[in-house]
Amino acid sequence: DPSADSYHPLKNAYWKDKKVTPYLALARTFQVIEETKGRLKMIDTLSNFFCSVMLVSPEDLVPSVYLSINQLAPAYEGLELGVAETTLMKAICKATGRNLAHIKSQTQLIGDLGIVAEQSRVSQRMMFQPAPLNVRDVFRKLREIAKISGQSKMDLVYNMFVACRLSEARFFIRSLIGKLRIGIAEQSLLTALAIGLVKKNHIDDCKASKVAEVYKDEIADTTLLLKTAYCQCPNYDIIIPAILKYDIKELQERCPMHPGMPLRPMLAQPTKGVHEVFERFGGMQITCEWKYDGERAQIHRNEKGEISIFSRNSENNTAKYPDLIARSTGLLKGDVKSYIIDSEIVAWDVERKQILPFQVLSTRKRKNVDIEEIKVQVCVYIFDLLYINGTALVTKNLSERRKLMLEHFQEVEGEWKFATALDTNDIDEVQQFLEESIKGNCEGLMVKTLDEEATYEIAKRSRNWLKLKKDYLSNVGDSLDLVVIGGYKGKGRRTGTYGGFLLACYDTENEEYQSICKIGTGFTDEDLQTHSEFLGKHVTSAAKSYYRYDPSLEPDHWFEPVQVWEVKCADLSLSPIHRAAIGIVDGERGISLRFPRFIRIRDDKNSENATDANQVAHMYQSQDQVKNNQKSSTQME
Ligand code: ATP
After folding, report:
1. Residue 291 appears among annotated catalytic residues
2. Atom 10 (ligand 1) nearest CA
3. Is the ipTM of this complex over 0.85?
4. Whose CA is nearest to atom 25 of ligand 1?
5. What is the CB < 6 Å shell around ligand 1?
6. pLDDT tens-digit series, residues 575-624
7. DSSP 576-603
8. Are 348 and 114 in contact (CB under 8 A)?
9. Which residues are the signal sequence here (predicted)?
């Protein structure tokens, strides 16, 4: 049992003589993790399994990692399984001799085809007993299944299902559906890998269960190094061989960024006015750029001249913008072979030569866009250069990066532009520039350090980029991006749709969703209809184990965490019921939003990119009345 305190990653790896990891060992690990409540224990269990694989069958580490997060390739490649449930049901029927109606009703009752598959034992007698499954074969075949269709897909699923033993059936079927349900997301996975690595390094002098205590600092360092490397190189096919071969301290240099592989973007902190900006930056040289309201785009060109475009979330958006690719050479000046630029794509009115609102951009088709059919034209506003001709620029200051950007690229009217910028340390000029940005159809300004503390901080919400929005609510400063986790049935005019919803922020450290408010305002009837239809497809039978909420908030339906909404509010207050940021500002109370109002769906964010618990705490604390209260209580002391 990989969760037992006595588990020894080498001695207890029962497959050590064969050196091929059985799928059953992984399935058993998943089973234990699914039954475990605390996140630390879940991570520890997974780290034990990873450590065993590192020691016994290291070439299985890559497939084991991908299988644990139910991915077939780096996320940005977008290779997905998602086999239809009915196809799987048919395969299960064929193998078990049960009828389809029975499997369907059982699935409705239990709410999980994986469990139904596990419970329906294979009844067919085989001439030859299929060989036991192993991790690398399962992974290879899942990749194959994702790429083929029709009868051959069915056959492959069937052949593998027949070979499943015990809980293998559960996880195999869940992998195919695309929902593993063990609650291991990226951050937990990276931590488990780091702990596994430390356990491996100390396998001789320490029992696995003690490593977490004895080598606390080493675990913290290893985790940080691994997570940092992953932000610039989000690809386990590269990272894992490197951690097995080299010292972890070399990881960043062994796994360099390169075009074609998205970097986690640098993010900004909100502010509530020009004064706050100057308080923060003091005498540092700063630049203000217009903050365009469109879609963030990291545009890559590799040595072969291939272009890829990634969203804020590192999703591959290349197929959405064939028009940009067609005209990409116009941007180049001089000898440019490869680059990574950071930019914002906005909708563009060709006749009036002006920026159109975000809503227009959001009507553009997302996939398989045919260049002839494009109705919404776009213009790209470039604001940063992260890589040029084989050299990464992220450790250079913004003024140097900008100089290189101007050297290698050129503007093309209505197609490629540099973000309008003003380098000034004069408060009135900043205020005036803010007004101008609004007249230019922008959201406000981004204020950035130029020379000091001005490197590109991958994946960080940095204090060196401040956003200054015109429509900031004087009290709150920014909107929040929240995950819809529950729905309340509507009454009166709203009968037949949901009338209200339960929203949550995301706590990155504990990887859980914490309730922050109920919301019922800001929706048109049409919005409610759309939301009800979409969320109705993502109802789950119970709250997820990683939802934190008070029982008094129990909604009529719980949802999978699949959609993020932008929400504005009047202010944030401490709440005895809601759990957002609990333990950060107050030990027992969370934070909730007062008068929340729906603004729009954030398609470009997945639920793990929702506003984080620390951001909620920060927004709460920077409200004037909270600050004043804190000041007066310190004065009283
Ligand atoms: P988050 O901060 O979580 O990304 P968000 O996606 O709502 O939230 P904002 O915080 O409002 O974005 O602002 C940062 C975003 O502004 C960037 O991600 C980018 O898409 C956009 N942006 C527009 N113009 C610029 C610019 N000149 N410099 C940097 N970012 C810009």
Report:
1. yes
2. 268
3. yes
4. 291
5. 267-268, 289, 291-292, 296, 312, 344, 383, 419, 446, 467
6. 999 999 999 999 899 999 988 999 999 988 889 999 999 999 999 988 87
7. SS--BTTTTS-SS-EEEEES-EEEEE-T
8. no
9. none
